[in-house]
Each structure stands twice: as C-alpha cells, then as structure tokens.
Amino acid sequence: MSLLRLCAFAKCLGRRGFLQTPAVRTSFADDCQLCSSLRNRTGRRQITGTAVHNQRTNVSFVFPKKEDVRKRLPEHSQLLDVLEARVHQLLSHVTDVPHAQVPFHRPPSSKNIILSGISPNKQPQKVTDKPKSKVKADAKSLTSPWKQRISQEKKTRLIQQQHLRNVKIDPSKIMSSVHHDIAHKTIFLTPKKTATSTKIMSKVKKVSDKNDAKAAIPQTATSTVTKGAGEVSKKLSKMEQKPSKNSTKETTEEAAKMEKPKTSLRQKLNQKTTATCPQEGARGSASVEVRHSVRAYLEACLFSGNIDTGHSFLLKLHRMEDRRKHLNTDIYNILMSGWAKKGSLNNVGQLFILLEEAALKPNLGSYSAALECMGRWVTCPSKVITRCLDQMKKEGLSVDDLFSQCVFHHDEKDMVLKAVHAVHPEYQPQIQQTTSQFSLPLVNDFYTQRENHQYPKLHLTQAELLAGFKRQLSMELACTVTINSVEAAKPLTENMAKMREHLNNLNNQWHKTLLKAFREKKMILVKTSTKYQSLYPYLCLLEDKDYVNMMIQSISTLLPTGLTLTAYASSLGTRVYTKYCVLRKQQNQMVQKLGNIYKRYAQLLANNTQTYTTLPREHWCQLETEQNLGLRMEHGAEKGWPDVVTLKLGSYLVDLIVKNLKIRSDILNPAEKQALIPILYHMYTFRNFQQIGFIKPHPILTQILSDAVETTLTFDSYIMPMLCPPVPWTSASCGAYLLTPTNLTRAVDGGKQQDELEKCPNLDAVLDSLNTLGNCAWRINKPVLDIIVSVFNDRGSDKLNIPPPLSEAPQIPNLSFQDPANKAAERNKMRDEANNARKKRNEMHSLRMEALYKLSIANCLRDEIFWLPHNMDFRGRTYPCPPYFNHLGGDMARSILVFAEGKPLGPKGLDWLKLHLINLTGVKKKSSLQERLEYANTIMEDILDSADNPLDGRKWWMTADEPWQALACCMEIAKAVRSPDPTQFISGFPIHQDGSCNGLQHYAALGRDVIGATSVNLVPCDVPQDVYIGVAHQVEALRAEDAQTGLKVAQVLEGFISRKVVKQTVMTVVYGVTRYGGRLQIQKRLEEIDEFPKEYVWEASSYLVRLVFSALKEMFTGTRKIQDWLTESARLISKCGHTVEWVTPLGLPVIQPYFRRRTQVVNSPLQKINLHMHDINDKPDTVKQKNAFPPNFIHSLDSTHMMLTALHCNSAGLTFVSVHDCFWTHAYTVDMMNKVCREQFVNLHSQPILQELSESLLEKYCTELQSETYIKLKQHLAEVPETGNFDLHQVKESTYFFS
C-alpha cells in the first residue's frame, strides 16, 4: 500500500502544473509501469460512458473553470506540501525498490501551435505557468534513494519545461504521427528531426490529443478545404522555423539522459507491455464479432450521412480498453475514407493518432484516404504529400500496391492520383495481372494445354445479350419484381372481387399508418443515436416508404400457420440489407463500371464475335485489369451484417406492424361487434421443449388473402432466374448476380468457410466449373407448362403430384368439449382428428403455394431465355441460386425446362431420347440398353398417343415414375419421328445420365474393392448390376435362416422383402444414416404395404435394419474399413477440440460446421430472443463431427468428379449441367459426355486420395503431441486402410457406370 502511495505522489509531482492548466489533460499512460501493473492486478473497475466523459474520468483531474483556477492554486499548493510530508514519513519504512522516473514535459505556448483535430481558425487558450522551485528544508536530511530520484526528476522537468517554452513547432508535424513503435517513427507529414525533437514531438502530440474536449465530437470540416485552406497554407509556411543549434544540442543531451533506462525492472515492464500490445488478427471470436458489428455500424453511418455520429461512436470505443483491443486498422480506415471525401485533413490526422494510441499500423487503405484528402485540398503543400509517400516507402508499401489493392469509388482514384502527380507528375500506375500457378495434378494439363479446347458460345448475338443485361440490371436495382399469378386465369367471382377491393383498401390504409408510425418512432430514436449500436443509422439507409413497402409485402407472404419471430424478423432485416447493398453500389458508381465491363464480356459469349481461348473467369479478370475497375475488391469489401443486427432491425419493423396495423372485426361479417383488432399477433409456442416467440396472422386476414386470389405475386429480385449470363465467379465473393450480394458458399454458421475461400489461392478450377453450370441458357417448354397449369387450376392431382387447393383440404371439426355426453376417450379422439386435419391443411397450403410460385415464375419466363447462377455448399456440392424454380426441383419443374440452344439429334440422338423415356418410367431397370430400346419401339403407339392426347387419351405417361418428364419426352419423340429427317431434328431436350449408387461407387474405388465395384457397375457387364436387389437377396437369405430357427418376426416378413423396402436405407447408409434413421425408413416402406400386419411394423423394421447393415458389411468389406477409419479419425480430432478440415483434390478447403451452439440474448421491442449461434472458435460437436465426416468426405469427392467433368465437357464444346450425380446434356452429345465422365472418375481416383488425406491431417493436427489423445490420433491417422486389387481403368469400359 505504501508503494502505491509513493507512486501516486510521484505522479502528483509530475502533474503539479496540470492543476494550473485546465486546457490540458493527460491519461494513465503517464503512470509508472510498476504502479500500473499493480493497479491492474487489483482488478481496477472499467470506466465507461460517453467519449468526453471517458476523457475526463480516465485522468486524475477534472476540468476546472477559468475563474476558479486562481482560487484553487493555494489549496493545491497546501495539498502538495501535505503529500510530500507524508512521503517523507513513509520513506523510512520502505526498502530501496528500483523505480522508474516519471518525467513530464511541459507543452509550449499554444499560441504558436495548431493542434491536430482543431480548426486553424480556433487557437487554444494561452497557458502560462511558473514552476515551483521551493523545496522543503527537511527533505535535505533524507538519505534514501527516493529523495535523490524525486529531486532529479524535478530538475529534469524544470530544464525540459524551460526549453519547451523556447521551441517552435510546425503544426503539420503534430498531426502527422502515424504509429507508435520502439523507435518512435513519425508520419509522412514530419520532417527528419533529432532524437530529442522526436521525443518532444511525441510528448506534445499527447498533449494536443487531449487539449480540447470538442475534439471528441468532430464537426464536418468541409471548410478546411474551401474557406480555411488558404489560411492553413499560410500558417504552415510561417511556422517552418528550425530551433537554434545550441538549443538543439542542449535538448539532445537532456533527452539522452531522459531516454536512458533506469533499472532492469523498467525494461522488463516495457517488454511485458510490448508483448501484450494488441495486434491485428489475434483477437479470437469476440474480436471478429465486435469488428463485424462496428464495421456495419460505421458503414451505415457514412452511407446515411451521419459521419459525426460514427466518429463519436468510434471514439467512444477507442476510449474503452475492453473495446479498443478488438479494433483493427480497417475499422479506423472507414472513417478516414469518409473524412477524406469531405477534405477534412484534420480529422484524418486525428484518426492516425488514434491508430498510434491503439498500437496499430496504417495500411494501404489508411494512406489511400490520406492521399485522397490531400488531393481534394487545393493548396496542399507538396512537401506534405512527399512525406506521406516517403513514409509509405519506409513501411514497405508502394504506390502501385495502393492502386492495385485498394477499392476506389467515385473520383477517389482521381484524387489519389492528383496528389501523387503533385510531386511525381509523370507517374502512371503499373498494375500487373496476377497469373495463377496451377499446382494441382488433376487440372494442371487442363490449364496449360489448350490447343484443342473449343469453348462453346451462346446462340445469341451481342446486342441480344446486352438487352438482357439492361433488363436484369433494372430488376436488381428495383430489388423486387411483380409477376402475374397463374391463378389469375380463374374466372372472377363476386366474392373474389369483393375481397380484392377490401385488400386494396386495407393496403392503402396500412401504408399511411405504417409510414406515420415509422417516422414518429424514428424521431424518437434520434435522441438515442449516440448510444452504443443504436438502430437509428440503419433506419436512415433507405427512404421511409421503402421500409413500409417491405413490411406490407411481408404480410402478404406470411403463412396462415405463422412464422417464428426469429425467422420473420431475419427475413425483413435481410431485405433491408439487400436493398442497402444495391443502393450502395449504385452510389459508388459500380453500375457504370459493371456496364463497361459487361459490354466487352458479352463478346466472349456472343455468336457474332470472334472466338476467344480464355475462360469466362479469365476474360472478366483481364477486362477488370485493363480498365482498373476493381469490381472483385468492391464485392469482397462487403462483409454483410451480423445476425444480431439483422435480427434487431427486423424485430423493430415487426413490432411496428404488430402494434399499428389493425383491421375491423366486422369486415367479413357485419353482424359481428365492430372493433379494431391487430392483423398480426405475437404469441408464444413450444418447439423442442423450448418456448419461442411466434407471429401469426389473424384468421380474418388469412381468409381475405385466400379468397382474394391475388392476380400478382411480388418476389425479391434474386428469387427470379437471370435474364442475362451471370457475372462469372472470380473470387469467393464476386460472381452470380449483377448487384445482389451473393457468397460462393451457402450460409454456414461461423463463416470461416467463406474466409478460407477468400484466402485460398487454388480455387480457379472450382470457380470455372460453377461458371460452366451458370452459363447454360434455358427456356420454357410451353406445351407442357400449359397442361400443368390447367391441371393446377382444376383442383390439382395427387396422382400427378400437383397440390390441390385448400378447398379440397379436410375441414377442421368443431370440438364440443363442454358436451357431457362426450366421454374422455371421445374428446381425445376429436382432438386428434382436429390436429390431424389442421396439420393436413397446413401441409396442403405450403405445397400449393410452392407450386404456385414455380408455375407463376415459369409462366412469366415462357417467352424468355434465362440463366441459373450457381453456388455451392461447404462440401462443394453445387446448387442454383434461384430457390423456387430450377432444375434441382421435382418432376414438375424439370419437365418444363429445356436447353435454350438446340442441337441436331444426329445418328443416335433419337435412340437416347427413347432410352431416357424408359428410364423415366422406372421399368426395365434390370435390362440392357438394347432391350430397353426394343421395348420403347414396341410402345410407340402409347408414346404418340400420350403426346397427342395427354389428358384425354390412354394416359400411358401417367404410369411412369416421373410422369411429367415422361410426357415432355413423349412430345419430343413425337416431334422427332414426324420430322422429315430425325437425325437433323433440332432438339434442346436434356438427357440424363445417373450414377449407380454414386456414394458406394466412390467407396469401392477408394478401397479398390472388387466385389463392391462389381455391385455398383464399375466393372463392365452385359446387364446393369442393381446393388439394391443384391442387398435384398442377401437380406432375404439371412431372414430365411432366422425363420427356420422359429423367429416369429422373420416368419412374418416372408414375401415382403423387396428392392423398394431396402433401397433408401442402402442408398443413404453410405452417407451416414444411423440404424435409427434406417429403421424409420424401412418402417415407412412397410406401412405402405397394405397386406403387411401393422402390429409388426416396429419390430419388423428394427429387425430388417440390422440385416441390411450386416448384408452391406459382407458385400462391401473395403467400404466399411474406410468408413470406420474416417469415423474414428473424426472422433479423435474433435475430442482434441478441433473441427475436421480437409482439402479436396481440386483444392477446395472443407470445414465441417458442427459446433456446440451458444446462445446470445437479443433484446427486441417484442421480447428477448435467444439467438443460437455457432462459431468456428466454439467447441466442436463431437457426435456430429464424427458421424458427418464419412458422408461429407464422399460428397466432396462426388462434387470433385462433377466439376472435373464440367470443365472437360466445356472445353470440348458440350452443354453440361448436373443435379449432383446426375449429368445432363444434349441427346447428340451423350456419348461424348459419358466418355469424359468415366475418364475423369479414373483420373480422380488415380490420385492417392486416402494417403494425402492422412498426411494432411497428420500435419494439421499432430505437429505437437500434447496428450494421450493426440498420440492415439497420430497412430490412427498413420494406419491408412489397405486397398484391394481392383483395376480402376475398367471403369472406362463400363456401360452402366453412368446410364
């Protein structure tokens, strides 16, 4: 305790002048290191508050009023005397402890200084102070070293103060401090100085940073460039005075004494402080979340014009140690860029000082903002720009790097170039295009040997492509699109007209009510805009009417069953973010840049331009480099909003709807009592034993929406397919839509997957394969669409998988629980019937709306050519971005999609059409291709009748497994056989080639398992091998053995074991299905058999799933060994606290996103929401990591095979798309695609996949053996399963490998 008091006394002596200098403030940084260390150990309470409050409470004094200073000086003097006497008393009890000096430098008179962050027109108050020289007489008798140190400190301080009064300093030097390191480097605005002047400047900078409380809340400083530019320039020129040689010499000697280390304790403390200094990139999960949130908030402030609010917010975070340690340079750069646009060099300089205080170094973005600001300053001295460039050079940064790596908007690039030209008039940016180095064996030849490549072109001209680009651009700028509903063709009834009138009046009324309420609530939030993470900036991003339109649109799409508050609020928040991103790109003139590039990019794809030898990704990157537009970096700069922000904003809007929108209770029934009731209710329900908030529409609103049968549907723009070829993927965040933000990978909790992809150098093959899939042009099969729409509007059809309307749904019975005649059993039965009816109605409504969306979108595109951009999941499996209408949909959606470009059938095209039709029927699966073709020729009459009279004829097509695709194929065959020359018939009908249990194919190839390979058609055979039939036979044999022993369930199952019963379990066991999941699958199949006794369903399914797993283990021995090895590897890795990560043979990093979820409470106006979050730094979920690794690894292999096939088909000029392991192409090119497919499968599995996986896992997880688990893991990973002797090249000759 005595030691702390001594340190406090030293601090008081060092600040004695402060008590007489109200305009100057300091911080705890002036304390001695030992005292600070002891204070920190005692857990000093963190002080929070506003920016100004923090500046005042983090120091040992307050700002006294000017008139009270003189009155307080005698009191302060008496207090110091008392403290010094107390120190002398304590010194006799304190041992000689090494202690560092606490020097303090008096600032010079402020009349000759323009401090950073202070307007040149406003000079600080002149401060004078007479140092106290009187020393107590009794101090002379002290013999302790403390007395000598105190005396020496006083002398040193007096000398320094006397010297500082005589030194004149360039104000530009003060603002120019950039970062703080051991050598006290100074920024670009500071000329070379002696060590003494450097030390003095650092001290004066500290004082200037704390001189005026107004600096905490900066003001818009446009006047710095316009009105005050001349004055600043004059003052800068007048103050360029050098100190005298004698003064410099004396100051150097004094500084040398001051800089000398006093004790080893001081050195250790300095080392400890340096070691614990916050550094970028090492913050962990909390830092990432804070930076993400702060970045979103500051960007919203800048976009909405509230830069002062953003600056105050950042200062507030900067003054709080627990917050500042999470910030990085890019956060400060956001505000630097904003102030640079206003030409406020003072505020930019202040942010450089804040960077120094945070122990962060400026990067290219920081210097770019500084140079931009100097470029906007008309009279900026050239020496200031020169110092900036020199400082960049010292930091190892070049001007070329600045132009090639920074993102420029508006005229930012011109301003930076203007500043550089002020000192280097002949400079021109030298930007070199980076060339990819292909180190992957699988694709090395593909990229280096292109002599025979024939990249396909579209069948459209450049003008047609650009016309589609303009239409797509306008749709994305609007963010929404309204289309006609296919239900609009229904005849208008009186009730429909009445409901539509009600709905129209309600929408107009709701719009006015919401707009008024939104503006009122927004005005209230203005007062809280300075609070931490206020929603106010997010409510200023769009026009008020845009928020209102989004809220009203969300009401019309709300399901009758309602939505959870989390889902509803998140969807609203996401819509706001999407609109904000589009407006931001429009504001940054990205639309114009995009148009310039796309105009030249269309030349690559158009059929009336020259032939290129580059891929779309390469061509786009080349165009960007030539024009230096940097669209990739602009896309990459978008980090999205945190889930918490999206949820809070959305819940705020939901609260406005719930509390303000009403409807009359008698609107449908005038006999009812008139009252205003909310259209949406906030309620609670239970899911998985947890209480959650729920938003449900009132039944009156649901009935109005249902009876109105609206003629239009409104969708977000990204719901629709694109009207022009997508932007090629050039990075993990740039591709697909023109303006709508899209990530390469679908949403994965934690986000590390996306970050790894952005840093991955070998993604070219993955990106090129996605571009191949996305560049396939489609059109609508109008005859089939018209038939489907007619069935849809005519009560649907369960047999044809067309959902019927709600009028066909079962009615919910009226329960009469109060009737005493109903017993308890009857009441329970009535309740179950009501629940089942309600569940059935909800399911029917959901399916009906999904079909309505698909058919309405297809009908809207019936005369269009469109494209489906693709992205992928974390394993590399590809998916179309438009969610409703795409070729991954069911039978109905696939039947109305055909290739936009047709090709002649050729000599074998008609045969492939017939074979495809037979495959769709589901019959003849055991037959050879020739037998299937012969069967197709025998039923030609049925095929032609189905094409001519689909709804009134024999209806043979309805018996197929995929009836709508079968009908479409029948129509295509009919057109071909009736054409003059079927070989010249132009067909755009896609032919499918499906893998034979693709997961087991990869397992058999990995293990070189002969028996398994034969079962899944890796070996050439005369007829296709059906693995499902093989397993069914094996299971039947095991069942027969048990039946002979008298097992009752085995006897009951006699005659019921078929291919259909075991197929789903066999197909999914390779993808990680458990015995429990397999039992449910088999149970469902048994329940579909009417003859099977229902009382044995549970027992029989439990028995059969055990037999299926046993049969698979016997048939696929190599498969089970590999699967067990992968499972145990994942278990040990996750047990060590790691997630399972690997890299596919095509260079795609895969991270399993299974973690123990954590809950974050989000305060919303309606309720507190528990937001379940997963993060890469959280503990992994061992069970999920273990069970998911084998199927995910196999999925990553089948996606690799698909991507390789897509690349080589594209280089051969083929049209290619896929649905995972089902490949599509024209009938003319099926044979070529089959050849490529087999060759790439052999190339893939010729790589030492398991050995490379083992080595990569060993390198990643076993570099340090920290525990016994790590030792087990190392031993297990080293024991790669042995492989069999299957000849992989036999796959090339297998007809039924894909068929």
TrEMBL record:
Keywords: Coiled coil, DNA-directed RNA polymerase, Mitochondrion, Nucleotidyltransferase, Transcription, Transferase, Transit peptide. It comes from the Eukaryota. Its EC number is 2.7.7.6. Residues 470-775 form the DNA-directed RNA polymerase N-terminal domain. It is found in: Mitochondrion. It catalyses: RNA(n) + a ribonucleoside 5'-triphosphate = RNA(n+1) + diphosphate. Belongs to the phage and mitochondrial RNA polymerase family. Residues 116-126, 264-277 have a biased composition (Polar residues). This is DNA-directed RNA polymerase. GO terms for cellular component: mitochondrial DNA-directed RNA polymerase complex. DNA-dependent RNA polymerase catalyzes the transcription of mitochondrial DNA into RNA using the four ribonucleoside triphosphates as substrates. Component of the mitochondrial transcription initiation complex, composed at least of TFB2M, TFAM and POLRMT that is required for basal transcription of mitochondrial DNA. In this complex, TFAM recruits POLRMT to a specific promoter whereas TFB2M induces structural changes in POLRMT to enable promoter opening and trapping of the DNA non-template strand. Has DNA primase activity. DNA-dependent RNA polymerase catalyzes the transcription of DNA into RNA using the four ribonucleoside triphosphates as substrates. Residues 822-850 form a coiled coil. Residues 127-139, 232-262 have a biased composition (Basic and acidic residues). It comes from Cynoglossus semilaevis. Residues 116-154, 219-285 are annotated as: Disordered. PPR repeats lie at residues 328-362. GO terms for biological process: mitochondrial transcription. Homodimer. Component of the mitochondrial transcription initiation complex, composed at least of TFB2M, TFAM and POLRMT. In this complex TFAM recruits POLRMT to the promoter whereas TFB2M induces structural changes in POLRMT to enable promoter opening and trapping of the DNA non-template strand. Upon metabolic stress, forms a complex composed of FOXO3, SIRT3 and mitochondrial RNA polymerase POLRMT; the complex is recruited to mtDNA in a SIRT3-dependent manner. Also forms a complex composed of FOXO3, SIRT3, TFAM and POLRMT. SUPFAM superfamilies: DNA/RNA polymerases (SSF56672). One of its GO terms (molecular function) is DNA-directed RNA polymerase activity.
